[in-house]
Amino acid sequence: MVGRREVFGSLLLGSLSAYSALAQAITYEAEDAVLTGVTVATDTPGFSGTGYIDGFDEATDEILFTIPSETAQLYDLSLIYAGIYGEKVTTVLLNGKDASDVSLAATEEFTTVSAGQVFLNAGENTIQIQSNWGWYLIDAITLTPSEPRPPHQISTTPVNPNANADAKALLAYLGSLYGSNILSGQQDQASLDWVTQNIGKTPAILGVDFMDYTDSRTSRGASSTDVEKATTHTATNGGIVTFCWHWGAPVGLYDTEEQPWYSGFYTEATDFNIATALADTSNANYTLLLHDIDTIAVELQKLEAAGVPVLFRPLHEAEGGWFWWGAQGPEPCVQLYHLLYDRLTNHHGINNILWVWNSIDAAWYPGDEVVDIVSADTYAQGHGPISVSYNALLELVNDTKIIAASEVGSIPDPELLKAYQADWSWFCVWAGEFIQDGVWNDREFLERVYNDEYVLTLDEVQGWREAGAGAGGGSRK
Ligand SMILES: *[C@@H]1O[C@H](CO)[C@@H](O)[C@H](O)[C@H]1NC(C)=O
Ligand SMILES: *[C@@H]1O[C@H](CO)[C@@H](O)[C@H](O)[C@H]1NC(C)=O
Ligand SMILES: [Ca+2]
Q1: Where is the active site (predicted)?
Q2: 154-476: same fold as 4-145?
Q3: Which residue's CA is minimally distant from atom 12 of ligand 2?
Q4: Which H or E run includes 429?
Q5: What distance in angstroms lies between residue 357's CA and the mean position of ligand 1's atoms?
Q6: What sign for the dihedral angle of Cα 432, 435, 437, 439?
Q7: For site-directed labelling of 250, which of 101, 123, 157, 241 has its Cα 20 to 30 A away?
Q8: Structural domain boundaries of the chain?
Q9: b/e for 198-222, b at 16 or more Cβ within 10 A?
Q10: Superfamily for the 154-476 domain
Q11: What's the 347 CA to ligand 1 centre distance in angstroms?
Q12: Which atom of ligand 1 is nearest to 277's Cα?
């Protein structure tokens, strides 16, 4: 229990309930921890305890705290630091793994910054603060038992007022499971089949792509049967489908050896400029965008006619900037999203779509009135609950929308999802190596996940349409 002291002067508080609520925040002084390559200093005023730690200048420098916890429990972790050398980044490890980076803004005084949540085991735990960029002062860390999250406030009414019964039932079904289960998902039919053949269970959700339907690709020989595969997965096999769209730029593909046409959704493979194209509606490139959207509309109408609602995730990972639709910043991207929504919903009257948005940054958010579900794509290895992204999305929509892990490399561990209250509605593992190489997800782990009660597979989502209709779209959970 070295270095432990109560943060709040609990004896000064009058009421017992206030005492129990506040007394649980515990500070661990850095100067009392095990130090490697760093030193205790006292020159900068405002620290707690008897000093703070300076001298993070080598990659191996670290502070190691030993933290007892009476029970296995989730805590909010904060760092008290001073950024007197400017903006930096530090790395925090829990029990020697699950590394996460914490940004430290430049400050003149000691300041508290959130370092996310940590699930401590009963007994002794370790928290390490490792150099990363180095050059910051660490005074202490604090741990506070996380507040139980209040009940979710999600809406299960589609944003399109004319959404059809299939779309309504699907959103209501997802809402009825939210926080109680996660649906398994797999990108690509061949990879989904690999799971069936090797793990003995079939993912509930098939992820497919509108990539190879538009002119700049079909004119160069591309073709796709993803719409047929999606129809079979839902109409014949009783599953659920999600479509992304690696939208090849309609024009301006470099089509060179380094940047071949089939990479045409990447910013670096085209000089197509989304801001210029959207600047006026008489522009030839604006017309080309509409033409591509109209091409996808034909495919969506086939799915609608076949009774297949679509979790549609266009303009994904926009905030990363690596796709042309995100290359000119948030404004043209949000404009393109509204154009897509309006063209498909109002012009074509397509009503089987649930609209899945895929960036976390609020500057990119297209608005509550055009988004049914928010999501994030994350490729961290090691089966963590991705709780930092989950909590950021929760904040983005104030817990009013369902949240999905729309692309992952490693599947989050169901035990950690529950412990961290990271209530992702579904996960979708990306295709090929991510599911098959034994590195992102090893065989033993896949067998455990696919047999976990918390994880729903194709056999367990049979009848979702009736269950969703029964759950009643429009309810709030
Ligand atoms: C349309 O985009 C192409 C490819 O970036 C570009 O060369 C062309 O100038 C654009 N046309 C207009 C009218 O802006
Ligand atoms: C977020 O939701 C809570 C609970 O419904 C509500 O009290 C609060 O006003 C909402 N905040 C915003 C910013 O919408
Ligand atoms: Ca201190």
Answers
A1: 317, 407
A2: no
A3: 398
A4: strand 427-429
A5: 28
A6: positive
A7: 241
A8: 4-145, 154-476
A9: ebebbbbbbbbbbbbbbebbeeeeb
A10: Glycosidases (3.20.20.80)
A11: 25
A12: 14
Alpha-carbon span 469 to 167, nearest angstrom: 10
Task: State both tokens at 423.
Answer: 């209530």
Q: 76: CA distance to ligand 3 center in Å?
A: 19
Whether 317 is a known active-site residue: answer: yes
Show pLDDT as tens, one digit a residue, over the chain (477 residues).
Answer: 333 333 332 333 333 333 344 447 899 999 999 999 999 999 999 999 999 999 999 999 999 999 999 999 999 999 999 999 999 999 999 999 877 889 899 999 999 999 989 999 999 999 999 999 999 999 999 999 998 889 999 999 999 999 999 999 999 999 999 999 999 999 999 999 999 999 999 999 999 999 999 999 999 999 999 999 999 999 999 999 999 999 999 999 999 999 999 999 999 999 999 999 999 999 999 999 999 999 999 999 999 999 999 999 999 999 999 999 999 999 999 999 999 999 999 999 999 999 999 999 999 999 999 999 999 999 888 898 998 899 999 999 999 999 999 999 999 999 999 999 999 999 999 999 999 999 999 999 999 999 999 999 999 999 999 999 988 654 444
Tokens 């490792």 — which residue? 130
Using a 6 Å cutoff on CB, does residue 272 contact ligand 1? yes
Q: Which CATH architecture has domain 4-145?
A: Sandwich (2.60)
> Do you know the residue count of the chain?
477
Residue with tokens 């549609």: 312
